[in-house]
Amino acid sequence: MPDQNAADPTTTDPVDPADTAAAAAAAAAAFQAERRYLGAVAYRLLGSVADAEDVLQDAWLRWQSADRSDVADPRAYLTTVVTRLCYDQLGSARARREAYVGEWLPEPVLTAAGTAAPAEPAELAELGEQVSVAMLAVMEQLTPAERAAFVLHDVFAVGFDEIAPALERSPEATRQLASRARRRIRDGGRRGPVDPAEHHRVVAAFTSAATGGDLAALLSLLDPEVAWHADGGGIVNAVRRPVLGALHVSRLLRKLTTRWIDAEHPLLPAVVNGEPGAVWYAAPGTVGGVMAFTVENGLITAAYVMVNPEKLGHLREL
């Protein structure tokens, strides 16, 4: 006769609510500890603040539902999750950007204005540190796999052994992806190093001349082969292809200084993605546009003008 006091093997011990709450709190704390890092990874992979925030939300949901008992390194695990989410999104984003009206430029991050406090919450401000708009624009030429391998290895020092599973490649193949990306970025990037003080001086002179409508001074700051890139997204009137050459760009500047910028709507110095840039307001509290610059040998060699309001909504007044 069976023992009535024996435990029923088909039943399980009830889950202690306190244990569940403790596990949930630990999961939240682990994710929060890596959130800024993960956001920086996602922003560099996607070039979009909004898309990076969406990826973080998806990563959090997956982290909540995952079996975390075997996760020895939350950062490595979450980096893989975020990379896969971004990798999938980059494939569809490329198709959307091919149908985009005009040139697609990354969403800017205002990290500071002059000596003022950061213009973004600390977490968002950190997204843009040390990754210029110019670099993000160049990375648009990479394949999703090249971009992921380059960003993770060269920017965040993640080993190829860790990157490979996220891209479903071998470590050696991942190494080759990063190498190709490095060459393409080198070919499409600056011709030489830039002095931060010189960059600041040139941009400050540009903002002053633009606000004052001094076209001669503006022209003196342009490299003869300067490239002007603008992103209005078909919402705001902007050139749809890069404009090349100082003479052609100076004509655009004439329109800029008569249409958008004047004494009541000055072009203000700002730190855009960690480098000297500029911002102006269409109305109090509403950013009208953001400018980022590449400066070499004391001259502006490239300007990136973001006026698509859908890419500026996350920015606060300085």
TrEMBL record:
<comment type="similarity">
    <text>Belongs to the sigma-70 factor family. ECF subfamily.</text>
</comment>
<dbReference type="Pfam" id="PF08281">
    <property type="entry name" value="Sigma70_r4_2"/>
</dbReference>
<dbReference type="InterPro" id="IPR007627">
    <property type="entry name" value="RNA_pol_sigma70_r2"/>
</dbReference>
<dbReference type="GO" id="GO:0006352">
    <property type="term" value="P:DNA-templated transcription initiation"/>
</dbReference>
<dbReference type="InterPro" id="IPR052704">
    <property type="entry name" value="ECF_Sigma-70_Domain"/>
</dbReference>
<dbReference type="GO" id="GO:0016987">
    <property type="term" value="F:sigma factor activity"/>
</dbReference>
<dbReference type="GO" id="GO:0003677">
    <property type="term" value="F:DNA binding"/>
</dbReference>
<keyword id="KW-0804">Transcription</keyword>
<keyword id="KW-0731">Sigma factor</keyword>
<dbReference type="Pfam" id="PF04542">
    <property type="entry name" value="Sigma70_r2"/>
</dbReference>
<feature type="domain" description="RNA polymerase sigma-70 region 2">
    <location>
        <begin position="31"/>
        <end position="94"/>
    </location>
</feature>
<dbReference type="InterPro" id="IPR013249">
    <property type="entry name" value="RNA_pol_sigma70_r4_t2"/>
</dbReference>
<dbReference type="InterPro" id="IPR013325">
    <property type="entry name" value="RNA_pol_sigma_r2"/>
</dbReference>
<protein>
    <submittedName>
        <fullName>RNA polymerase sigma24 factor</fullName>
    </submittedName>
</protein>
<feature type="domain" description="RNA polymerase sigma factor 70 region 4 type 2">
    <location>
        <begin position="134"/>
        <end position="185"/>
    </location>
</feature>
<keyword id="KW-0805">Transcription regulation</keyword>
<dbReference type="InterPro" id="IPR013324">
    <property type="entry name" value="RNA_pol_sigma_r3/r4-like"/>
</dbReference>
<dbReference type="InterPro" id="IPR036388">
    <property type="entry name" value="WH-like_DNA-bd_sf"/>
</dbReference>
<dbReference type="InterPro" id="IPR032710">
    <property type="entry name" value="NTF2-like_dom_sf"/>
</dbReference>
<comment type="subunit">
    <text>Interacts transiently with the RNA polymerase catalytic core formed by RpoA, RpoB, RpoC and RpoZ (2 alpha, 1 beta, 1 beta' and 1 omega subunit) to form the RNA polymerase holoenzyme that can initiate transcription.</text>
</comment>
<dbReference type="InterPro" id="IPR014284">
    <property type="entry name" value="RNA_pol_sigma-70_dom"/>
</dbReference>
